[in-house]
């Protein structure tokens, strides 16, 4: 190395400039330098150079360690940035999913409200149909009971029986006088029944019309009412 070479050159120059001693001369002449002084200086320079080299090696080793630590922290930093970017991406995806779920929830809530309104409407209609059905059933039962009572009553006690059930027509083998007599008797009885029924018909006409209307509605709506009850 340059420092080492310069030390060696200096040592050689020092040796060449010093006076040579003759054989047997005394080494301790006045003003003469010691014979070992240049060598000691060379050794001291070499030691100093070696110390500097050792220190340089130590500093270089520390610098390499610092570079290694820097590279390690750089890798950790890049890895952390990568994970942070992935976390942000996952966060955005989750936000999009949450927004989609909120929209789906709002749509389902609206559908649920519509379904509840339809259920309430159907329940109300079902209740109305039940009332109508109960009313029609009652009217039908009343009419059936009235018809059964009229059908079971004797001819003399019921004026409606004659109107609903006409007497049998006479056979052709009867005599003309008998047929005429029977027809006159029938006409007389119908006239009497009509006179007895007239005062009552005025008050019952409106009720009968209403029962007829209810009966027709019952016949028209009965299948629908049956489905509603199921």
- What multimeric state do the chains show? single chain
Decide which structural class fits the backbone: mainly alpha
**Biggest β-sheet, characterized?**
none
- Beta-strand share of residues: under 5%
Termini distance? 112 Å
How many helices does DSSP assign? 4
Helix content: over 70%
How do the helices and strands follow one another from N- to C-terminus? HHHH
Q: What gyration radius follows from the Cα positions, in whole Å?
A: 68 Å
**How does the overall form come out from the CA principal axes?**
rod-shaped
Unreliable stretches (pLDDT < 50, length at least 5) are: 1-36, 172-177, 224-230
Average pLDDT figure: 72
Query: How many DSSP E strands?
Result: 0
Task: Give a quick set of tags describing it.
83% helix, mainly alpha, rod-shaped
Give a description of the structure.
Residues 1-43, 148-230 are annotated as: Disordered. Keywords: Coiled coil. Residues 27-38, 148-159 have a biased composition (Low complexity). Residues 193-223 have a biased composition (Basic and acidic residues). The protein has 230 residues and is mostly helical. 83% of the residues lie in helices and 0% in strands. It contains four helices and no strands. α1 (2-17) runs antiparallel to α2 (37-152) and α2 packs antiparallel against α4 (176-229). The model is unreliable at 1-36, 172-177 and 224-230 (pLDDT under 50).
